[in-house]
Structure formats: structure tokens, C-alpha cells
Amino acid sequence: MTQPYIQEPNRIQEEALPLPIGERLLRNQCITPQQLQEALQRQAGESDPKEHLIGKTLIEMGHISHPALLECLFHQLTRERVAYQLNPSAPAIIRFDNVAKTLDGRQVLDGLNLEIPAHKITAIIGISGGGKSVTLKHMVGLMRPDRGDVWVGDQPISRLSGQKLNAVRRRFSLLFQEGALFDSLNVTDNVAFPLRETTALTEVEIRHRVETALQEVNLAGMGHKFPDELSGGMKKRAALARALVTQPEIILLDEPTAGLDPIIENAIHYLICDTYMRTRYTIVCISHAVPAIFDWCHHVVVLHRGRVLASGPSLDIRNSTDPTIKQFISGDLDGPIQVI
């Protein structure tokens, strides 16, 4: 692979603009203009070129390896993170206004004020029991606040019910911490499940969407397998394919790397990066993969004791001088967070 170039500061904002994957690879000198042209010509001869993945075509033609493709996209994400730090302006797609929630007599969310930027990758971090999963459930209306409001765009999801609530929920997909695959269904039927339940697509259309989703997560040809035949990393990828197949606006990831070894954890992070670069969906990720997660997101929210302790570009949060944040990132026992 040609070594990706480090661009001049005055080009950072330009490079952060949405571009097709092929154009991104070309600008980052991962492929040549001739290689991109050859891949596009090959796609033009296919029956449904819009559904074909340019990265997959380039790999099949031997112009780039799969690891090199992912590495190049990671370099592009890094540049976008720098651009976001210089100009962290993005409209909020999800907003919490003074949200409070008590569970079993414990105040889990305590006047939470939070904004999730649209079309960015946001990581929500914090100590266990700090309200991260509860926050995620409020975003899709699985929980309602005792006080305050949760907004998705201009819709107050915390006040909606019935068809109006379901309409907002269709803008989301959720990847559960353990994947939550159905043991009695094979991978194809697991991924097809939300399409069969919530759409009027024909079986031919569903099969096509499922096959494309499995290709996107590098599980092509694995649709016949059942969950108990998959490794932990493959289960995560199958669950991500199910989240992608509905083509949502917002993807919520609850601990996508929990319980995985460092190599598979890294592979899942690359896969999330690849997904973002292709789709530009808003991605919200709860993660304990600190400090690695700072390299894979634009924006970080630190939750502590039911409130936002800090929120901003990942580079700023990583370099925070706040003693609580520093202790959490370093994992030191000595500091304001007392666990033993």
C-alpha cells in the first residue's frame, strides 16, 4: 500500500467533507487513479452497481488488501477528528434536557444535559453504574425520564407513544452488548428479522439486503451458520449486520467490544470506522475500551454520577486535566473515584 500522506493544515477542513469511499482512497494515495477507474468500470457492468461495495471491488481486483483498506480509512478518520477538534460545530441530533431517572431508589440520571452531534461517532464513557446504558435506553424510548425531556431531532421522544414513537424508533438501530442473536435462527434469518417485522419488502428484496449487509461486515457465505457456531467476534459482526440492514439514521452500540480479545476488539473498531465512512450514519457507542476508544470517535461524553462531567472532541477529552477524567483514563486507584 502507498503510505497515506499527511496533509497540510489548510486542507484538513476540505478533507473532512463527505466523499465517496473511492475518492477518499484516491486522495489518501491508497490507490491510483487508474485503479479506481478500473474498479468503477467493473462496477458499471454489473446488474446493480449501487449495491456493490467499491472497497470490495478493489480488493477483488488485487488493487488493495482488506487490512490496507481499513488502515487507510482509519487515517481518514484521524484527519476528520483533527478537523472536528478545530471546528466542533455539528447540529445535535439527540438532546437531553435536565433528564432525571431513579431506579430502585437510586438516582441514576441527575439532571442530565447532553447533546449528540449528527453524522459523527460519539463515545459515551464513565465508570460502571454511571448511567451509560440507561442513557442509551432513553434515546430510543425504552425508558422514560422521571423529569426532563429527550429530543430526537425535533421530536420529543420522551412524550411520544404508539405510532409516533415507533416512527422515531425506526430511525435507530441498536447493537446490544451481547449481540442478542436468536439462537434458533441462522445468521441470514437473524439479520433479516427486523426487515420482516417492520417492512413490506419482498423476500427477494430482503435476501438481497441481507447478503449486502453480510458482505459489509465480512461475513459473506456465513448466512447458514447458527449463533452457537460463531466466534465472539463473528457474533458481534452478525449483530452489526442486523443493525445496518434497516439502513438507519442512528446506530447505538452498547459495549461492542466487551468480552473480546485485543485483536478482535481492534477488528471491531476498524469495522465501525468502515461502516461510518461508507454510510455517514450517526453512531453512539458506549465503551469501556479506554484509552483506545479516543482514536475511533470524533466526540466523547464523560458521564459521572448521572451527569455530564465533560463533553467535546475526543482529542480535548483525552488531554483533559480534570482529576476524575485523568484517573478514569489511566485506571489509577488513587484519585477522586473511590472503588475499594
Short note summarizing the structure:
The chain is an alpha/beta fold and 340 residues long. It has 13 helices and 10 strands.
Structure characteristics:
4-stranded antiparallel β-sheet, 6-stranded mixed β-sheet, 13 helices, alpha/beta, 2 domains, Rossmann fold, 340 residues, 10 strands, disordered N terminus, 41% helix, single chain
Description of the structure:
There is one protein chain. This protein has 340 residues and is an alpha/beta fold. The chain has 13 helices and 10 strands. It folds into 2 domains: 9-86, no CATH class; 92-330, P-loop containing nucleotide triphosphate hydrolases (Rossmann fold, 3-Layer(aba) Sandwich), CATH 3.40.50.300. It has a 6-stranded mixed beta sheet with strand order 6-7-8-3-9-10, sandwiched between helices. Strands 2-1-4-5 form a 4-stranded antiparallel beta sheet, with helices on one face. The chain is globular, with a radius of gyration of 21 Å. The N and C termini lie far apart (49 Å). Mean pLDDT is 88; it is low at 1-16.
